[in-house]
Amino acid sequence: MKAFLLSLTSLLCMSWALAAAPDEARLQALAAELRCPVCQNQSLADSNAELAADLRQEIRRQLEAGHSDQEVRDYMVSRYGEFVLYEPRLGGHTLLLWIGPFAMLGAAVAVLAWRVRRRASAGTTVEDAAVAPESRP
């Protein structure tokens, strides 16, 4: 009888641990996606701040209540703003963040092409430009 109760108890503990594992994995994934409002350069998963621990507990409570990952993210954004997201959503106020680097790269390529064409139309080669003006014939 003791062996039966012991095996039943261990089976229940193992099933509870296996059932909790997906929620723990979801918790860790969400905590890694969200920035700590105190530390600013660390995720909630990496931060040791007291607020980060509280927010991890809040995520755990919401996951246990059956909320989806997106609902948890929306809750955090409603409380702390877009700042808590490591990857800000594409919207009107974040459009410059998403398009800005590509626009700057395009502008740099355009300036470089313009300078190369201008130099080519002037008949100056790279070797001529490297020679000091005094030594030119």
Automatic annotation (TrEMBL):
Keyword Metal-binding: yes
Organism: Caldimonas brevitalea
Top-level taxon in the UniProt lineage: Bacteria
Lineage, opening ranks: Bacteria, Pseudomonadati, Pseudomonadota, Betaproteobacteria, Burkholderiales
Domain CcmH/CycL/Ccl2/NrfF N-terminal residue range list: 19-126
Gene that specifies this protein: ccmH
Signal peptide per UniProt: 1-19
GO function terms (MF aspect): metal ion binding
GO terms under biological process: cytochrome complex assembly
Function, in words: Possible subunit of a heme lyase.
Gene Ontology CC, one term: plasma membrane
CDD domains documented for this protein: CcmH_N (cd16378)
Pfam family for this entry, one: CcmH
Transmembrane segments: 95-114
Protein keywords: Cytochrome c-type biogenesis, Heme, Iron, Membrane, Metal-binding, Signal, Transmembrane, Transmembrane helix
Protein's name according to its UniProt entry: Cytochrome c-type biogenesis protein
Family in the record: Belongs to the CcmH/CycL/Ccl2/NrfF family.
